[in-house]
């Protein structure tokens, strides 16, 4: 992800949201500054689709909705809007068609250009959204899934899964998923 312009002036959240509706390029917003998003590799897209498909099937019959890459998450405490690769929202009170304020599960497929931001500022921003139960980081160059999850007490933990038969529970939709499910059809 590259900064839209090094000499860019900060803009308001409303200016960003209005501009994003008209833009051909997706941008993320962080405390007044806008950053253009790079495209994804086929491997990246396939992994995200595998995850979204598993979640969408598990969410049938629940109020949870699964979105892939074009719905923003509003991290109000960090004055930011991000486009995660997969996001799940289960709150019927969400009122905006373009972003979620109360997601429960967020997934980022890591790439060289975004990994540092995904692990630092996005992790912190997402942990500060009260509704988020889990944040999943997925490598695309090897089998590795990191699941950051919030316990009922509010404490955050992380678990790493690297074996294809490793299994883990996705909160919100209570779906058991294996690393093999995440990487179905993907070659390293």
Question: Can you offer a commentary on this structure?
Answer:
The protein has 188 residues and is an alpha+beta fold. It has a single domain, classed as tt1808, chain A (Alpha-Beta Complex), CATH 3.90.1570. Helix content is 23%, strand content 31%. The chain is built from 5 helices and 14 strands. It has a 6-stranded mixed beta sheet with strand order 1-3-2-6-5-8, sandwiched between helices. It is globular, with a radius of gyration of 16 Å. The two termini are 24 Å apart. Mean pLDDT is 92; it is low at 1-7. One of its GO terms (molecular function) is endonuclease activity.
Layout of strands and helices, then pairs:
Layout lengths: L1 E2 L9 H10 L4 E4 L2 E4 L5 H18 L5 E4 L3 E4 L4 E3 L3 E4 L9 E2 L2 E7 L5 H5 L1 H7 L6 E5 L6 E6 L5 E6 L5 E4 L4 E4 H4 L6
Parallel strand pairs: 5-8, 9-10
Antiparallel strand pairs: 1-3, 2-3, 2-6, 4-7, 5-6, 7-9, 10-11, 11-12, 13-14
Concise overview:
With 188 residues, the chain is an alpha+beta fold. It has one domain (40-182): tt1808, chain A (Alpha-Beta Complex). Helix content is 23%, strand content 31%.
Strand content: 25-35%
Contiguous low-pLDDT stretches (5 residues minimum) are 1-7
Q: Describe the global form.
A: globular
Q: What CATH architecture label applies? A: Alpha-Beta Complex
CATH superfamily: tt1808, chain A
The whole-angstrom Rg is: 16 Å
Pfam families: Uma2
GO molecular function: endonuclease activity
Domain Putative restriction endonuclease: 14-173
InterPro entries: Nuclease_put_TT1808, Restrct_endonuc-II-like, Uma2
């Amino acid at each position: 992800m590259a900064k839209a312009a090094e000499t860019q002036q900060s803009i308001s959240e409303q200016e960003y949201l209005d501009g994003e509706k008209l833009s051909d390029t997706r941008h993320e917003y962080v405390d007044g500054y806008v950053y253009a998003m790079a495209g994804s590799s086929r491997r990246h897209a396939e992994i995200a689709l595998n995850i979204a498909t598993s979640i969408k099937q598990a969410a049938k019959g629940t109020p949870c909705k699964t979105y892939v890459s074009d719905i923003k998450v509003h991290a109000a405490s960090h004055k930011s809007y991000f486009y995660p690769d997969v996001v799940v929202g289960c709150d019927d009170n969400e009122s905006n068609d373009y972003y979620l304020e109360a997601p429960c599960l967020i997934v980022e497929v890591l790439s060289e250009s975004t990994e540092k931001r995904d692990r630092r500022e996005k992790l912190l921003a997402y942990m500060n959204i009260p509704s988020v139960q889990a944040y999943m980081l997925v490598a695309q160059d090897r089998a590795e899934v990191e699941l950051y999850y919030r316990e009922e007490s509010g404490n955050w933990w992380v678990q790493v899964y690297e074996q294809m038969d490793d299994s883990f529970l996705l909160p919100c939709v209570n779906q058991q998923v294996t690393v093999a499910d995440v990487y179905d059809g993907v070659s390293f």
